[in-house]
UniProtKB/TrEMBL annotation:
<keyword id="KW-0963">Cytoplasm</keyword>
<dbReference type="GO" id="GO:0046872">
    <property type="term" value="F:metal ion binding"/>
</dbReference>
<dbReference type="Pfam" id="PF00149">
    <property type="entry name" value="Metallophos"/>
</dbReference>
<dbReference type="InterPro" id="IPR041753">
    <property type="entry name" value="PP5_C"/>
</dbReference>
<protein>
    <recommendedName>
        <fullName>Serine/threonine-protein phosphatase 5</fullName>
        <ecNumber>3.1.3.16</ecNumber>
    </recommendedName>
</protein>
<comment type="similarity">
    <text>Belongs to the PPP phosphatase family. PP-5 (PP-T) subfamily.</text>
</comment>
<keyword id="KW-0677">Repeat</keyword>
<dbReference type="InterPro" id="IPR013235">
    <property type="entry name" value="PPP_dom"/>
</dbReference>
<keyword id="KW-0479">Metal-binding</keyword>
<dbReference type="GO" id="GO:0005737">
    <property type="term" value="C:cytoplasm"/>
</dbReference>
<dbReference type="GO" id="GO:0004722">
    <property type="term" value="F:protein serine/threonine phosphatase activity"/>
</dbReference>
<dbReference type="Pfam" id="PF08321">
    <property type="entry name" value="PPP5"/>
</dbReference>
<feature type="domain" description="Serine/threonine specific protein phosphatases">
    <location>
        <begin position="61"/>
        <end position="336"/>
    </location>
</feature>
<keyword id="KW-0904">Protein phosphatase</keyword>
<keyword id="KW-0802">TPR repeat</keyword>
<dbReference type="InterPro" id="IPR004843">
    <property type="entry name" value="Calcineurin-like_PHP"/>
</dbReference>
<dbReference type="InterPro" id="IPR029052">
    <property type="entry name" value="Metallo-depent_PP-like"/>
</dbReference>
Length: 354
């Protein structure tokens, strides 16, 4: 049974293996629970809609169903490569979203503007689903549930899908408050299985952060990354998650202290070396929700409007239609949310400065 998750329905206990640890957690559904329920093992659209409605009304999903979603997600993500190839048929669309950062009500607004995720309406969410915003549990369970329901929903790892960031910026505390300590370790494990990058129709490279400290990196090098770990402080995986573009040529130190800054010449060489047309990345708040840089060869997209309730920025998402994959950028403004401040579950010392 090592390495497996076992559900024992009679006792209503789920045993979860997280790394080398066994956890026992009761998942009996109390008679008074009236929230969303998964019937059997299949996550359905009706379930996801009910769950989102409950979340909008600040109701929690029962831990039993949260376990089912996250454990199914773990199995699905483990089977994926570090670089995922996406095929968009001619005449079809793919929507790429940037950072959401726990802003659940703005995520719902994206779906109202652009339709719910489905096989006919696929999305790629480009990392930083959690932290800072205080509805991160709602965001991650919604995205994971859609992925369980519809494999053509794509999720990439961001720099905030990591233990060190979650401990400081709120997700870890929020998970403890809304679910349990067990889920802290379970989410940390599952985040390590998220792919690092995607390529759309062999032409558009999509990554959370950016490019590399050396020239000559090929897509095959990214595919070969062993991603099943916490992000290292240097190397290709670190740079994919942390790097930022700069307006001048060459490379420079990162303003973040991790990764690097890279110029248009670096972007151009990477695209040429890999027969690509465009880099799409996220990782930085932009006033209009997006910015086109590097001679039109790099787009930043950021999908958390009025970031942390104080930046006043718009959010954006990008729609790519095959075969030409010309980016159609849609911007939107923030919507109201319940009176729970950003970073409400964050490290107490850090929250003093918010």
């Amino acid at each position: 049974m090592v390495g497996a998750a076992v559900a024992i329905s009679v006792e209503a206990v789920v045993l979860v293996v997280v790394g080398t640890w066994w956890w026992g957690e009761s998942t009996e559904v109390e008679p008074q629970y009236l929230g969303a329920k998964i019937e059997g093992d299949v996550v359905t659209l009706d379930f996801v809609k009910k769950m989102m409605d409950d979340f909008k009304n600040q109701k929690c999903l029962h831990k039993r169903y949260a376990f089912q979603i996250v454990l199914q997600m773990r199995e699905m993500l483990q089977a994926l490569p570090s670089l995922v190839d996406i095929n968009v048929p001619d005449g079809c669309l793919l929507t790429v979203c940037g950072d959401v950062h726990g802003q659940f009500y703005d995520l719902i607004n994206i779906f109202e503007l652009n339709g719910l995720p489905s096989e006919e309406n696929p999305y790629l969410f480009n990392g930083d689903f959690v932290d800072r915003g205080s509805f991160s549990v709602e965001v991650i369970l919604t995205l994971f549930a859609f992925k369980c329901m519809c494999p053509s929903i794509y999720l990439a790892r961001g720099n905030h899908e990591s233990k060190s960031m979650n401990k400081i910026y709120g997700f870890e505390g929020e998970v403890r408050s809304k679910l349990s300590e067990t889920f802290v370790e379970l989410f940390a494990e599952v985040f390590c299985y998220l792919p690092l990058a995607h390529v759309i129709n062999q032409k558009v490279f999509v990554v959370h952060g950016g490019l590399f400290s050396v020239d000559g990196v090929k897509l095959s090098d990214i595919r070969a990354i062993d991603r099943f770990c916490e992000p290292p402080e240097e190397g290709l995986m670190c740079e994919l998650l942390w790097s930022d573009p700069q307006p001048y040529p060459g490379r420079g130190p990162s303003k973040r202290g991790v990764g690097l800054s890279f110029g248009a010449d670096v972007t151009r060489r990477f695209l040429q070396d890999n027969n690509l047309d465009l880099v799409v990345r996220s990782h930085e708040v932009k006033d209009e929700g997006y910015e086109i840089e590097h001679d039109g060869k790099l787009i930043t997209v950021f999908s958390a409007p009025n970031y942390c309730d104080q930046m006043g920025n718009k959010g954006a998402f990008i729609r790519f239609e095959a075969p030409d994959l010309k980016p159609n950028i849609v911007t939107f403004s923030a919507v109201p949310h319940p009176d729970v401040k950003p970073m409400a579950y964050a490290n107490n010392f850090l929250r003093m400065f918010q």
